[in-house]
Amino acid sequence: MFPQGFKWGVSTAAYQIEGAVDEGGRGRSIWDTFSHESGRITNGDTGDVACDHYHRYREDVELLSGLGVDAYRFSIAWPRIQPDGKGPANAEGVAFYDRLVDALLERGIDPVATLFHWDLPQALQDEGGWFSRETAYRFGEYADLVGAALGDRVKLWITLNEPFVVTVYGHAFGMHAPGEARMLDALPTAHHQLLGHGLAVAALRGRSASPITIANNHSPVRVIGDSDADRAAGAAFDALQNRLFVEPLLGLGYPEGLQLPVREGDLDIIAAPIDALGVNYYNPTGISAPSTDELPFDMVVLDGYPMTEFGWPVVPEGLTELLTDLHTRYGRPMYVTESGCAYEAWPEDPDRIAYLSGHVEAVRTAIAKGADVRGYFVWSILDNFEWAEGYDKRFGLVHVDFDTQVRTPRASYRWYRDFIAGTR
Predict the structure, then answer these.
(1) Which label site among 28, 130, 202, 217 has the fewest CB atoms less than 10 Å from its CB?
(2) 380 prior amide bond cis, ω within 30
(3) What is the pLDDT of residues 351-409, one digit of tens each?
(4) How far apart are CA 381 and CA 387, in angstroms?
(5) Burial of 328 (0-12, 13-18, 19+ CB in 10 A)
C-alpha cells in the first residue's frame, strides 16, 4: 500500500506550456533566444505559443481537477517575475501565478512550485549566466520575491529542476540553451546553481513554512564491459549524475576528483537544510570506458528493453533500484517529481498506460523495501514544447492540437484518474 498522505500529481514547466512570451511584462529567456536560432530545435519550433497555458490556465486546472490529483507541480518563469533577472517583481507576472495558485486551491489541489526550470533571463546570460557567481545571488533574490508573493499558499517548493541537465546539455554538450559546448569546463555552472539553491532555501525559509526540495534527475548506472576502465567510467558517471547535485546539499561535500570554484563558506550555504529529495527518473544509463579524452566515460544504448519514441529504454525496476539506493545512501524522504514517457498515440495510448502502471508499481515496491517516498508526479499533464525536440515528442496524458489548442484526454488520463481513485 501507499502511505497515508501520499501525493499523486502531475508536472509541467513554464517555457514548455505557457506561451505568451511577449505579454504581461515578461522578459526574454535563454530559451527564447536559443529556440529562434537556426538549427537548434526540431522543425524550427519555439515556445512562443506552446500550449497557451497563460491564457488557458483555467481550462487546464479543470483537467487537473477531473484527473483527481492531489498536487500540481508547475514552474515559475523567472523572466516573468524579473524581466532582467534583477530588481523588483513585475506585478503582472506575479498576478498570473496568484491566479493560478488560487485556482488550484479552489479545486483542492496543492500548488508545488519550481523556481527554476531552465528559463534563465537572457539579461543574466549576457552577464555570464551560470558561469557567474552573481547569478547565484540574483537567484536568491528572485526566490525571496516569489516567496513573499506565494509563500502563504504554495505547499511544496522546488528550487532547481535538473541542474545536471543545465550543466551537461546546456553548457557541456550544447544541445540545450544557452548552447555552449565546453565539456568538463562547464563544471562551474554546477557549483553556481547549487550556491543559488542554498541562497534560495534561506530566502524561502524566511517567507514560507512549506517544505523545500530540489528536483534532480537520476539514472542507475549499467556498466557495459568488465574491465577496470569500464568500472571506473561507471563510477565517474555516477559521481556526475547521481552524487554531484545531492551530496553537497546534505553536508557531504563534492565527490572526490571534481574541480569546482568553491569559496570559503559556499558549502555551508549549499547545505542549508532541505526537507526531501526530488527524484526525476526516466531510465538507467549504459556506461563504458571512454573512447576520447573529452569525458571520462562513454554513454551506451541499453539493448533488450522496449523503447519509448524518444529512444529511451523502459525499465520500471530501475526506479525501484534508484529509490532504494538513494534511501540506503542518504536516508531522506523523497518525491518522484517526474516520471513519464513519449508516445504519439491518441486517444488510446496503451504503451503509456503500461509505462505508468509499471512505474507506480516500482514505487510501491521501493516503499515496501523501506524507502520513504511521499509522492509521484507524472510528466506531463499536457503535450508540450519538448525542448530541443520541439513538438515532435509527446509526453501528455492530454493530447494537444497545437494548431487549435484543443485538449483531448488520452486513455492514460482516464487510467491515472481511476488508479488514483483506487488508492483512496
Answers:
(1) 202
(2) yes
(3) 999 999 999 999 999 999 999 999 999 999 999 999 999 999 999 999 999 999 999 99
(4) 16
(5) exposed
CA dihedral 419, 386, 171, 14 (to 10 degrees): -80
For residue 220, say if its preceding peptide bond is cis, omega within 30 degrees of 0: no
Determine the Cα–Cα distance for residues 296 and 236; give it in Å rounded to an integer: 7
The residue extents of the domains of the chain are 7-422
Q: How far apart are CA 128 and CA 30, in angstroms?
A: 12
* DSSP 8-class letter at 414: H
pLDDT tens digits, 8-53: 999 999 999 999 999 999 999 999 999 999 999 999 999 999 999 9
C-alpha 279/C-alpha 272 separation (Å) is: 19
pLDDT score of 1: 81
CA 407/CA 58 separation, integer angstroms:
13
Instruction: Tell me the CA distances in angstroms from 387 to 114, 299, 383, one per residue in order.
Output: 17, 21, 12
Q: Which residues are CB-neighbours of 397 under 8 A, at least 6 positions away?
A: 10, 67, 352, 378, 380, 381, 382, 409, 410, 412, 413, 416
* Alpha carbons 205 and 132: distance in angstroms, whole number: 25
Active site residues: 162, 338
Residues recorded for the chain:
424
pLDDT one-digit tens code per residue, 273-318: 999 999 999 999 999 999 998 899 999 999 999 999 999 999 999 9
CA dist., res. 109 & res. 96, Å (int): 17
The DSSP code sequence of 377-408 is: EEE-SB----GGGTTSS---SEEE-TTT--EE
Task: State the architecture of 7-422 in CATH terms.
Answer: Alpha-Beta Barrel (3.20)
